[in-house]
């Protein structure tokens, strides 16, 4: 019998993994920075992540989404992962967590 995985627990595991990925220009992880707009997990344990970048001209526009996808795929329960980039709404400092603002001396 196939083991049933709680998608909420898997979602928490995904967020933990996202918090290990840092924007190379800002010493804050991409989750606290507000670059992750949505994390969706379906019943087949396929993950879709909707994220943005700090700007369309971001130097890591090619590599950061691939890093996110690879790290999420490295989670044992995840069968597949897809990262979609959007600029709607555009990223702003308002999307940063209090923790990120504190880290960057913005509070």
From TrEMBL:
Gene3D superfamilies referenced in this protein's UniProt entry, alphabetically: Fe-S cluster assembly (FSCA)
InterPro entries associated with the record: Fe-S_Maturation_MIP18, FSCA_dom_sf, MIP18-like, SUF_FeS_clus_asmbl-assoc
Superkingdom: Bacteria
Residue ranges of domain MIP18 family-like in the record: 12-84
Pfam families: FeS_assembly_P (PF01883)
NCBIfam families (UniProt xref): SUF_assoc
PANTHER family named in the record: FE-S PROTEIN MATURATION AUXILIARY FACTOR YITW (PTHR42831:SF1)
Protein name: SUF system Fe-S cluster assembly protein
Organism, as annotated: Flavobacterium myungsuense
